[in-house]
Amino acid sequence: KISVSTLTSAINKLVNKKYVNRYRVPEDRRIVKIELTEDGIDAVKEHDDFHKRLVNDVLSELNEEEQAVLFQSLYAINDFFKKQRIRVIKGDTPLKLMPMTLGDVTIPVPIFQGGMGIGVSLSRLSAAVARCGGVGVISAAQIGFLEPDFYTNPKEANIRALKRNIREAKEAIKDVPNKGLIAVNIMYASRNYDQFVEAAVEAGADMIISGAGLPMSLPGAVKSNKVKLVPIISSARAAGLIIRSWTKKYNRAPDAILFEGPLAGGHLGFKEEQLDEAQEQFYDTIMEIKEEIADLPGCPLIVAGGIYTKEDVQKVLAYGADGVQLGTRFVTTEECDVHPRFKEAYLNAKKEDMVVIKSPVGMPGRAIRTNFTEQVEKVRIPPNKCNRCLTPCKSNEAPYCITQALLNAAKGDIENGIVFSGSNAYRSNKMETVEEIFKDLTS
């Protein structure tokens, strides 16, 4: 976790001593690969052996009580340096969302609109967000639900609708100055994942955002470096795994990292028993992820989950976020594509109506309480038909069909559906425009 300039100086010396070989990969000029030579391997072994002897010699002179004091001191010193590395930025002036640069493109206002399926975030909402300078996100999840052949030919219906929505959104903002980007959110657990990614790229998406599992193979489906790739993660460890995997296998690094906390809506990247602890550690996790990606220049951090107000935005910026993602607040906008009754569910919700349900594939999901969510807590509702939407789902064992429940809600049948939402849905008390939200969050 040292600076790039210090690291470069150190590596230069090791190269000169013939301990290290170094080369830059052509696919992503941000990535420099280094490897030990045979002489370097010998030097490392000699260095490690020396430290083992040093530690053993020191400990051999101490009794158990003295060793305990030493360990406690070392832990305290380590914690002190960790806090210095990832301490909260302090200051008297409010923090602002600054333009975000991703390689050859700039996002004027780094507010990402959450990718909400089914039928919630389509071309109209995403275009409205991009028109304000943010990142408008189209959700690929069962996006073809209104196509006439959806039930007989779901893959083709979804791909057709996905392409159409991307092109509509891009057309709507083509002449807008200082516009943002149009992105597509594709769940990694989706069947036909690669085909959806390829369809999004073909239709002109500026960015692919992917979660619901670690999207390890995403760069393999995207040949163009112009399309920005943003994985959704829930921990610093997951960020490190993706960076190492993509770099090694594809010579490509993420263009940004999106950390989604446990207060987000829809499918959550945590087990149900982890949710409370994960929320307690939310801000620490932001700092840990920021530290994890510090060595990757030009890779900003976007934070999501429970962000609703300007104060929420400023707080995550203080802990190291470079941008934010909001989903829930954009649902009750005039531009949101979803059925009016879906929006009414948000406007009528109370705090006690926020629930966490278990999806058929075992992932917890956050939603607004409905008659359907209460039913599935008590009895199994066997699926009538399987669209084979999620790879891990087994329809003969599933407690219910989440796709059908989400489709019902998207079409306005709230009582027989699931209304996914973030933890702040109960705070929605009026209809807004996307422009009004941007002004409020950036004022």
Structural key phrases:
443 residues, alpha/beta, 4-stranded antiparallel sheet, 16 helices, globular
- Helix and strand composition category: alpha/beta
User: What form results from the Cα inertia axes?
Assistant: globular
Q: Outline the low-pLDDT stretches.
A: none
Distance between the termini: 35 Å
Helix fraction by DSSP (H/I, runs of at least 4)? 40-55%
Strand order of the largest sheet: 5-13-12-10-9-8-7-6
Task: Tell me the number of helical segments per DSSP (H or I, 4 or more residues long).
Answer: 16
Gyration radius from CA atoms, angstroms: 24 Å
Average of pLDDT: 87
Strand-residue fraction?
15-25%
Q: Tell me the major beta sheet.
A: 8 strands, parallel
Q: Could you tell me the number of beta strands?
A: 16
Commentary on this structure:
The chain has 443 residues and is of the alpha/beta class. Helices cover 41% and strands 15% of the residues. Strands 5-13-12-10-9-8-7-6 form an 8-stranded parallel β-sheet. Strands 11, 14, 15 and 16 form a 4-stranded antiparallel β-sheet that branches. The radius of gyration is 24 Å and the shape is globular. The protein starts with a helix and ends with a helix.
